[in-house]
Predict the structure.
Amino acid sequence: MARVTLQNVSKSFGGDRGPWAVQDFSLDIADGELVVFVGPSGCGKSTTLRMLAGLDDVTSGKIMIGGRDVTSLPPKDRNIAMVFQNYALYPQKTVYDNMAFGLRVRGEPKDEIDRRVRSAASSLGLDPLLERKPRQLSGGQMQRVALGRALVRDPDVFLLDEPLSNLDAKLRVKTREEIATLHARLGATMIFVTHDQVEAMTLGDRIVIMRDGWIQQAGRPLDLYDRPMNVFVAAFIGSPEMNLVEGDLLRDGGGLKVRSGELQLGLPDGEFVETERSVTVGIRPEHIIRAEAASDIEMIVSLVEQIGAQTYVLGTIFGQKFRAVFARDDVLAAGDKIPLVLPAQRLHMFSRENGRTLRQSKSINETNNGRKNHDQAQLKSMEVQG
């Protein structure tokens, strides 16, 4: 396996003047790490993966794999294996022949091909399916064949481009578990692209969140969940998404608070910088607590969603829409009034002007594996986005 480094990589499909699909992308991926690129459609994550694979040229910047500069090398010379969204299996070939085809093209000995194919098939539970053709397989089985075809090549890096998007919900979970297990067993360097933040949170050693071609934040899953660098990351990570309301930052008796209409929220001492007056304050639905007695904050319930172990509640607080997650409650109904506590230690605060966090920098654990931080790139992105 190998270390992967992207240095100021940019991609434009219209020449040096843009439009830019990826901008100033810098990241160092450790040997054996599983990194997930995640973001909305059009954010540049698949384009970045295709540049790593050599399927798209790099407009500027450098790509290193295993200490080699591969920026200008064709795909066949990069020793990477890619798993595509549409599986790309040969319909006329058996599972065995689909997995063996790439090795035969490379001229590997017959015995070595057989050993690798059967070893990969055993790892993925494909032994009983080796003589079947793709039309005789389920979606999950075809996905495992595509993984097996990549596995037999013994590549330096595995690239996976939304490999689960064609599977139903139950099969997505099962296949996601198989990929995580495979990574743990192989210790392989893997880069996984998805638009699903649940996949990103459960699979990645680190997550890279992208928007409009820029890296918004890179770090461990819980770092991004606990310390989002901007409003976009805060809203993107977490399901249901974070509650966000706009308000004014005030100093009251030596302490800080945010006032949004009739809603007033005290902030913990020393946690945020007092550089803005117009702010956005946020709290995750799962961090809202039902008060045991009367409270100054009360939610009027609009909708109750029972999902088994938990109850999702949509309602309003002083006329502003909020979503909360509680333990199972079979008696809540629309129109109920619930006293709440919004814990100060669970609050997030962002600049309303540029969306950046106002949390003290000493309390932010931003991770980018020792490479230069992306504050400047993020600021450029936010300026471009308005």
Notes: Residues 289-341 form a domain with the OB fold (Dihydrolipoamide Acetyltransferase, E2P) fold (CATH 2.40.50.140). The chain has three domains: 4-226, 241-284+343-365, 289-341.
